[in-house]
Each structure stands twice: as C-alpha cells, then as structure tokens.
Design a protein that fits this description.
Distance between the termini of chain B: 113 Å
Number of domains of chain A: 2
Strand content of chain B: under 5%
Helix content of chain A: 40-55%
Radius of gyration of chain B: 35 Å
Structural class of chain A: alpha+beta
Number of strands of chain A: 8
Oligomer: heterodimer
Strand content of chain A: 25-35%
Order of helices and strands of chain B: HHHHHH
C-alpha cells in the first residue's frame, strides 16, 4: 500500500507568468506551488496529501471552521499572488485532481472556455463595495438587560418590546441606506466593466459594525481603479449619518470567473 | 505602461486590501466558496454554501447572547453543551455509582435484604438465591436451595 499518496490541488488557471513568478510560493498545508503548463494556459497547482483531501476527509474537514479558514486563506494567498503577475481565473476552493497529468488533460479539454474568460478578464481587477446602515441597535448601551425588565414582564416579552423600539428608530437609517445604495451602484457601475451583486454579509461573519445592505463586486479596468476609489471615498464622505460605504480589494476576479458571468 | 502587474499602482487608502493576509475572512470565504470557476475535480465534494456557513456561525455565536436575553439558557443544563452541566452530570453519576456499589457489596455479603424482604410471596430466582445463601448450606447447590425453598 502506498501510504504517502498525493493529489493535485488547483488554485487558478492563468496565462503562463514570467519565469520565477511563483518562486517560493506555498499553498494549502504549506506545500510548494508549481505550474502545470499546456500551450497558452497554465494551472497553478500544489500537491496535497490525499488523506486530507479525499472525499471523506474533505467532507469532514469542510465542517471544521478552523481548517476551512486555513485552507481558504492559503487558497486565496496563491490566487492573489498569481493574479498580481498575470491574468488568472480563480478556481473554487478544493478543486482536486488525481495528479498533474489529469490537470493537463483538463486544461486541454476546457481550453476554449478558459481562454474566453481570460480574454475577458485581461487588464481588470475586482473591487468589492459594501454599504452599511448603522442602526445603533448593536451598541452595548442599548443591549437589553434582564434585570431591567419591569416586574411581571417575561424575558421574552421584554425582548420583543425592545426589538419593536429599535425597529422604529432604524427605519430612517434604512431609507437613507437604500438611497445611498442606488447612488453608489449607479456611479460605480458607470466606472466598471461588469458588476455582480452578492448577498449582504451577515455581521456574525464579517464582524463589521452595522447592517450590510449592499455587497457588490465590480470588474474594473486597471486604468480606472483610481477613479473608482476616488468615487467610493467621495460617496462615503457625503453619506448621511448612520450609513457608510467601504471598498475592498483589488481582488483577483473571483466574482467574474465563471463563463457567462459579467459578460 | 509596461507594468506586468495588474495592480502595481496599489491604491493606498483602501480599507481592507484583498491582497493582504489580513483580508476580512468573510470576504475571503465569500469568494473562495461561492465565486471562482467551478470545474469538476476528481474528488467530488459538496462545498458548504456560504449561506449555510453563515447560518451555522450565527447559530454558534450570535444567538447565544440573544437567547440569553430572552431567558433561554437550556444549553447550560445540557451536559453535551455545557461543561458546567457536565460537571453536575458527573456528580450525579458518581452518586449513582456509589449507591450501586454499595448495593453490590451488600448483595455479595449476602445481606441482599430489602429486595427479598419486601413481602412478595412469589419468590423470584434472586430471592431464592438469597434464601439459599442465607440458609448457609455450604454444599447446597442453587437447585437444592430452590427445591428447599419451594417445599418450605
């Protein structure tokens, strides 16, 4: 029995970058990254131990948030480094093949669609824009306290009463935020080649203060990145109280990687 | 521009850079789990949908506080979820073990008593064994004992 079995984990498909572009790069589990080239395409690959990445292990590991975070960050690290050197199509997390031979075969079979996406993404980056509405409901001083409940009021009723009050004071902030979203999307859409609206992020996951009400990715040409960022800053500076605009990136074009997205 | 790097003129005032390792985990997960091109690998997996992941995290983290506000704290009594409850559970278990050990010791000593003496006329096999033991017949087998008992 072969104990040390390895599989090929693919991070991205790109145009072959210049020599040494990925020297010293390590991916998932600290394994070194290498290129599998096939014509005008290259896959960014690292060997991963099968006992951590076979079907059963993956299913279990993906439920482990700590493992997931480590792999997600390693995956992102390699994708990011690649995209800084050459145009690249990021792959979904944990795309694993039995070996580099299979990777090469996939590059051949999928050449047309990778080629089309790479042409579309050439010279562009992804910028993430989020609009938040700060409703004040999460300030510590507003946090309901069990001992403050009037006598006779059940904790459940007290909770509902407080929620009602909070909701009323939040309506204004929501309306201001909705206007800001429209304004931002219009101005930023005009500066970008494509956009993808994402689901607003849950504050439990992002830990950002306030409620995320818009979460959109824009595909922006390199030459327009500065103008785009200036516009975000300007939108944020005149956003009314309780609302704000944030930008993240530049990202590898994750949100525009699938064929047919943002065409 | 002959820059090989798409975003060499790196924007400076950017709030959270996707490039840095400190990129917001939510942003990273959103992209690597939900975006990126999907091609069939040799290993079939079902990625946890970002929405499910969010729900899971929310259940794990956020609702604990909210539920406490509402006076729901059942998990504090559930040994599987609370170390405090587990400790309490352990104590109960220890007490039960202690009582059981006492009873076993009593049975072994041949005192086995309360069970046999609870006034039930129809003797169970255990009662019979107890009676045989009490009878003190060193050579008496269980079968003998039972016979005696039945006759008596």
């Amino acid at each position: 029995m072969d104990r040390a079995e390895y599989a090929s984990y693919v991070y991205a498909v790109c145009r072959p970058p210049g020599a040494g572009a990925l020297d010293g790069a390590t991916g998932v589990g600290g394994h070194p990254v290498h290129l599998v080239a096939e014509g005008d395409l290259a896959a960014v690959v690292s060997a991963v131990p099968l006992d951590e990445f076979d079907e059963a292990a993956l299913q279990a590991n993906l439920e482990d948030l700590r493992w997931l975070e480590a792999v997600a960050r390693a995956h992102h690290g390699v994708v990011d480094r690649t995209a800084r050197r050459t145009v690249a199509v990021p792959l979904r997390l944990a795309t694993v093949y039995r070996g580099d031979g299979r990777v090469r075969q996939v590059l051949r079979e999928e050449h047309a669609s990778f080629d089309a996406v790479l042409r579309r993404l050439e010279g562009c980056v992804e910028l993430g824009v989020k609009v938040y509405a700060e409703t004040g409901a999460r300030r510590p001083e507003d946090a309901p306290r069990a001992e403050a409940a009037p006598p006779g009021e059940s904790p459940g009723k007290a909770y509902l009463r407080r929620r009602r009050q909070q909701r009323e004071s939040r309506d204004d902030a929501w309306q201001r935020a909705a206007r800001l979203c429209e304004e931002a999307d219009e101005a930023l859409g005009a500066l970008s080649r494509a956009r993808e609206h994402h689901r607003p992020q849950d504050s439990a996951l992002s830990e950002a203060p306030g409620e995320n009400v818009m979460n959109t990715a824009y595909l922006v040409e390199d030459a327009r990145v500065e103008a785009f960022l200036d516009t975000v800053r300007e939108l944020d500076s005149r956003a009314s109280a309780g609302t704000r605009v944030e930008v993240s990136g530049p990202w590898a074009p994750y949100s525009f990687a699938s064929p047919g997205v943002g065409v | 521009m002959s820059e090989p790097t798409p975003w060499r003129g790196e924007p400076r005032q950017i709030r959270s850079s996707g490039g840095s390792s400190s990129a917001n985990l939510a942003d990273v997960l959103e992209r690597v789990l939900d975006k990126g091109v999907v091609i069939a690998g040799d290993i079939k997996i079902n990625l946890l949908d970002i929405e499910l992941l969010t729900v899971k995290l929310r259940l794990l983290v956020a609702s604990v506080d909210k539920a406490k506000e509402m006076g729901i704290d059942w998990w504090e009594h559930d040994p599987a979820l609370s170390s405090r409850a587990m400790k309490r559970g352990d104590e109960e278990l220890e007490e039960e073990n202690r009582l059981l050990r006492e009873r076993i010791a009593a049975l072994e000593e041949g005192r086995a008593p309360q069970v046999a003496a609870d006034g039930r006329a129809d003797a169970s096999p255990e009662d019979a064994a107890g009676a045989a033991a009490r009878g003190g017949g060193v050579s008496g087998t269980g079968a003998d004992g039972e016979e005696e008992h039945g006759q008596g």
